[in-house]
Amino acid sequence: MDYREGPMVSVREFCEIYEIAVPIKKEVCPVCEGHGIHVNPAIDSHGISSEEFWDDPDFGEDYFSGRYDVRCNRCQGLRVVDTIDFENCPPGTEDLWRLLTN
Protein backbone atom coordinates (compact mmCIF):
# COMPACT_ATOMS: atom_id res chain seq x y z
CA MET A 1 0.00 0.00 0.00
CA ASP A 2 1.26 3.46 -0.82
CA TYR A 3 1.25 5.16 2.57
CA ARG A 4 0.23 8.47 1.01
CA GLU A 5 -3.08 6.89 0.05
CA GLY A 6 -3.60 5.14 3.38
CA PRO A 7 -5.89 6.00 6.24
CA MET A 8 -5.28 9.26 8.04
CA VAL A 9 -4.43 9.25 11.72
CA SER A 10 -5.21 12.47 13.57
CA VAL A 11 -3.21 13.49 16.60
CA ARG A 12 -4.34 16.46 18.66
CA GLU A 13 -1.69 18.37 20.56
CA PHE A 14 -2.96 21.39 22.42
CA CYS A 15 -4.84 23.35 19.75
CA GLU A 16 -3.16 21.83 16.72
CA ILE A 17 -4.17 18.70 14.81
CA TYR A 18 -1.59 16.76 12.87
CA GLU A 19 -2.67 14.33 10.19
CA ILE A 20 -0.36 11.59 9.07
CA ALA A 21 -1.16 9.05 6.34
CA VAL A 22 0.00 5.66 7.54
CA PRO A 23 -0.40 2.02 6.56
CA ILE A 24 -2.65 0.04 8.86
CA LYS A 25 -2.50 -3.62 9.87
CA LYS A 26 -4.85 -5.83 11.86
CA GLU A 27 -3.76 -7.19 15.25
CA VAL A 28 -5.46 -9.36 17.83
CA CYS A 29 -7.44 -7.13 20.16
CA PRO A 30 -5.42 -6.53 23.33
CA VAL A 31 -8.54 -6.14 25.49
CA CYS A 32 -10.36 -9.41 24.72
CA GLU A 33 -7.26 -11.24 23.44
CA GLY A 34 -9.11 -12.25 20.28
CA HIS A 35 -12.22 -13.68 21.92
CA GLY A 36 -14.56 -10.81 21.02
CA ILE A 37 -15.96 -10.75 24.54
CA HIS A 38 -14.79 -10.02 28.08
CA VAL A 39 -16.32 -9.82 31.53
CA ASN A 40 -18.46 -6.75 32.00
CA PRO A 41 -16.19 -4.14 33.66
CA ALA A 42 -19.03 -3.28 36.03
CA ILE A 43 -18.61 -6.77 37.50
CA ASP A 44 -14.85 -7.07 37.95
CA SER A 45 -13.12 -3.77 37.23
CA HIS A 46 -12.50 -3.34 40.96
CA GLY A 47 -11.03 -6.84 41.20
CA ILE A 48 -12.66 -9.91 42.60
CA SER A 49 -11.40 -11.77 45.64
CA SER A 50 -11.71 -15.48 46.31
CA GLU A 51 -14.00 -14.58 49.23
CA GLU A 52 -16.63 -13.32 46.80
CA PHE A 53 -16.72 -16.71 45.11
CA TRP A 54 -16.68 -18.49 48.47
CA ASP A 55 -19.51 -16.38 49.90
CA ASP A 56 -21.68 -16.81 46.81
CA PRO A 57 -20.98 -20.04 44.89
CA ASP A 58 -23.70 -19.19 42.37
CA PHE A 59 -21.85 -15.97 41.52
CA GLY A 60 -18.68 -17.95 40.86
CA GLU A 61 -20.52 -20.41 38.65
CA ASP A 62 -22.16 -17.58 36.69
CA TYR A 63 -18.87 -15.67 36.43
CA PHE A 64 -16.92 -18.60 34.99
CA SER A 65 -19.76 -19.71 32.73
CA GLY A 66 -19.68 -16.40 30.87
CA ARG A 67 -22.98 -15.08 32.19
CA TYR A 68 -21.41 -11.64 32.79
CA ASP A 69 -19.58 -11.46 29.47
CA VAL A 70 -20.24 -8.56 27.10
CA ARG A 71 -19.10 -7.75 23.60
CA CYS A 72 -15.59 -6.28 23.69
CA ASN A 73 -15.68 -2.52 24.07
CA ARG A 74 -12.48 -2.08 22.02
CA CYS A 75 -13.00 -4.27 18.93
CA GLN A 76 -16.83 -4.46 19.14
CA GLY A 77 -16.62 -8.25 18.92
CA LEU A 78 -14.52 -8.34 15.74
CA ARG A 79 -11.55 -9.86 17.64
CA VAL A 80 -9.04 -7.65 15.78
CA VAL A 81 -8.19 -3.94 15.81
CA ASP A 82 -6.43 -1.61 13.38
CA THR A 83 -2.94 -0.56 14.38
CA ILE A 84 -0.28 1.46 12.63
CA ASP A 85 2.08 -0.69 10.58
CA PHE A 86 5.30 1.08 11.55
CA GLU A 87 7.41 -1.43 9.59
CA ASN A 88 5.93 -0.09 6.35
CA CYS A 89 5.84 3.61 7.31
CA PRO A 90 8.26 6.14 5.90
CA PRO A 91 11.36 6.70 8.04
CA GLY A 92 10.73 8.85 11.10
CA THR A 93 7.00 8.20 11.29
CA GLU A 94 7.22 6.12 14.48
CA ASP A 95 9.40 8.75 16.16
CA LEU A 96 6.94 11.47 15.18
CA TRP A 97 4.01 9.38 16.42
CA ARG A 98 5.68 8.78 19.79
CA LEU A 99 6.54 12.48 20.09
CA LEU A 100 2.97 13.57 19.37
CA THR A 101 1.19 10.97 21.50
CA ASN A 102 3.34 11.02 24.64
What's the short version?
This protein has helices at 41-44, 50-55, 57-65, 93-101; strands at 8-13, 16-21, 24-28, 37-39, 69-71, 80-84. With 102 residues, it is α+β, with helices and mostly antiparallel strands.
Structural commentary:
This protein folds into two domains: 1-23 and 85-102, no CATH class; 27-81, no CATH class. The strands form three sheets. The chain has a two-stranded antiparallel sheet with strand order 1-2. It has a two-stranded antiparallel ribbon with strand order 3-6. It has a two-stranded antiparallel sheet with strand order 4-5. It is an alpha+beta fold and 102 residues long. The model has no long low-confidence stretch (mean pLDDT 84). The chain has four helices and six strands.
Topology:
Layout (H helix, E strand, L loop, with lengths): L7 E6 L2 E6 L2 E5 L8 E3 L1 H4 L5 H6 L1 H9 L3 E3 L8 E5 L8 H9 L1
Antiparallel strand pairs: 1-2, 3-6, 4-5
